[in-house]
Amino acid sequence: MLQAMTYNINRLLQKFKQRPVLIVLILMIIYTIYFSYFTILKHQTFNSHAYDLGIYTQYLWTTLNGHGILYAPGVGASSFGLHFQPILFFILPLYAIFPQAETLLVLQTLVLALGALPIYWLAKDELGAKFGVVFAGLYLLYPALHGVNQHDFHPVALAIPILLFCFYMFKKKHYKRGIILAVLAMMCKENVALIVLFMSLYWLWIEMRRGTSSLDWRNRLRRREIIYPTCLSLFVVICFVLAVYVIIPHFGSGEYPFFTLYGYNNIFGNLFMDVNTKLLYLFCLFGPLLFTSLLNPPALLIGIPIFAQNLLSGITATYGIGFQYASPLIPWLFIASIYGIKWLLATQSKSNKDIRTKFICILLPYAVVMALVLSPSPIALSRNMPRLTSHHTNLQQAISLIPEDASVYTLNNLFPHICQRLHAYTDRPKWGLNIFNYHGGNYDYLLTDSASDPRVLNWGSDESQERLEREYGIYAQGDGIYLFKKGYDGEPFTLGEK
Fold first, then answer.
1. How many CA atoms does the CB half-sphere of 48 hold within 13 Å?
2. pTM of the prediction?
3. Each residue of 345-366: pLDDT tens digit?
4. If we measure between CA atoms, which residue out of 33, 40, 157 comes closest to residue 416?
5. C-alpha distance from residue 131 to each of 68, 139, 371 (Å)
6. Residue ranges per structural domain of the chain
7. Rounded-to-10 torsion of CA 175, 179, 184, 187
8. Are 152 and 53 in contact (CB under 8 A)?
9. Are 182 and 166 in contact (CB under 8 A)?
C-alpha cells in the first residue's frame, strides 16, 4: 500500500513538473475559496458597508426591477452620475440568477484570482516556468490585492486581471484581442482609461525603439505594431473626455464630482500631508516584491496617473492598501518587477550560475512573511477571521420584520442587508446628526445598533429627538438593537426570543 501511495505521489509530482500551470490553478482555487469564505463571512457579520457594497447591490437591484438604470435611492443618482462603470451591465445577468450581495463578493474574488494566469504566462516567457509559478504565488500573496479583495465590492477591482491579460496580448502582438480587453478594462472606471493610454504609449515607445533602423520613418508608421497602439491611444482620449465631461455630468449634478469628492482643491498641500503614511503606503506596494519593480521604470510609469491620483488626494483612504484605490497600480508593479528581475539576472548570470534558484529561495519566503505581516485580511497574524454571534442573528431577525415595500433608514454597515428595496437609505455621516434632513426624512422604519455605533440614541438635536418620540415607537428591541416604526404605540417585540 505504501509503495502504491509513493508511486502515485511521484506520478503527481511528475505531472506538476511537466505542467507547472496546474500548480497555478490549484493556488487560484485555494485563493478563491479562502477569500470567498472570508468576504461572505465579513458581510454576514455586518462588517460590509453601504459605500460601496450596499450601493452597488442597490444599483443592480433597481435596474433588474425596472426602477431606473443603475439608480440608487440611497445616493439619489445613477451610477453614471458618479463614475463611468458600464461593466455593471455585464454583471447584471449573473446577479439576476443569484440576486444577493454575496454574488458580487464571490465574483470579485474569482476575477482577481484569474490575474495569476497572465502573471504566470508573462514571468514564464521572460524568466522560465519556475519563476512563472513563483510570480503567480507572489500575486496571490500580495497584501494590496488582499486589501482590494476584502473591502466590499468595486468594479475597478475587476480591471486588475483584465489589464494584465491586455498587456500580455499586446506583448504577443494579438492586438485585436488586446484592444477588446482594453475597452473592457475602461468600462470598470473612468480613470482606468488613463492607464490604458499610458500602456498604449508604452508599446509605442517599445516598438519605435526596436531594431527597425533599416526602415525609414514612413514605413515605421505603417507597421501594425505602431498603428494599433496609436489608434487605441486616440480612442482612449475620446472615451475619457466623453465619460468625464459628457456622460457623468449628464447623469449627475452637471459636473465631474471627482475633484471635490477626493479633495484635489489643494494639491500641493495634499502632497506634504501625512508623509509618513504615504511612505508606508509605498513600502506596502513595493516591499512585498523586494522593490524589484523599481528596476524597470518604463513599465512602472504606466501606473503614474494612479500614483498621482492617490498621493495627491486629500482623502487618507486613497493611500492605504486596505481599499480599492490601488487596484490599477497592481498590474504594473508586477510587470515592472518581472522585467526588473530579468534585467538583474542577466547582469549576474555570468558570475553566478545558480542565481535564479537563490533568488527564488529568497523571494518566495520573503513574500510569505510580508503577507503574514502586512495583509489586511485574516492571513496576517494580527487579524482574525470574523465570527458569527447571536447578535448578528438578532440583527437579521430585526431586518426580517421590515416589510419589503417599507422605507427604512439605517446605519452604514447595516445598509448592505436592506438595500434590495426601492426605499432604503443611509448616509455617510453616522448617527448623532439630524437624520430627518436626509432624503426628505419621511421613513417608515429606523434601524439602529449600539454595537455599530454607541451614539445610537443620540439624535444630535432637540428637534430630531422630539420628532422621534412624537412620531415613532420602538417596534423591536434587544441586544442593543432598536427598530423604530412610524406611528407604532404597542409593546415592542423582544429580539432573540423564539
1. 30
2. 0.91
3. 887 755 555 677 777 888 888 9
4. 40
5. 49, 12, 19
6. 25-374, 390-494
7. 160
8. yes
9. yes
* Rg from Cα positions in the chain: 26
| Nearest one of 335, 305, 63 to 191, comparing CA atoms | 305
Calpha distance 173→182 (Å, rounded): 14
Q: Which of 255, 244, 245, 253 is nearest to 77 (CA)?
A: 253
Q: For residue 465, what pLDDT is reported?
A: 72
List the chain residues with pLDDT less than 70: 1-18, 211-222, 259, 349-354, 428-440, 454-464, 498
* Confidence (pLDDT) at 432: 47
What pLDDT is stored for residue 12 in this prediction? 47
Helix (H, G, I), strand (E, B) or coil at 424: strand
For position 11, what pLDDT does the model report? 55
Gap between the Cα atoms of 347 and 316, Å rounded: 40
Cβ(99)–Cβ(61) under 8 Å? yes
- Angle formed by the axes of helices 275-286 and 304-311, nearest 10°: 150
Q: Is 489 exposed, middle or buried (0-12, 13-18, 19+ CB in 10 A)?
A: exposed
Beta partners for 78?
A: 71
Residue 15: which H helix or E strand, with range?
Answer: helix 2-18
Nearest to 59 by CA among 69, 51, 49: 69
Return d(Cα 494, Cα 488) in angstroms, integer.
Answer: 15
Distance between CA atoms of 115 and 338, rounded to whole angstroms? 15
CA distance 309 to 319: 9
What one-letter code names the amino acid at 460?
A: G
pLDDT digits (tens, 9 = 90+) for 306-328: 999 999 888 888 899 999 999 99
Q: How far apart are CA 413 and CA 410, in angstroms?
A: 8
Q: Which three cell numbers stand for residue 302?
A: 504606466
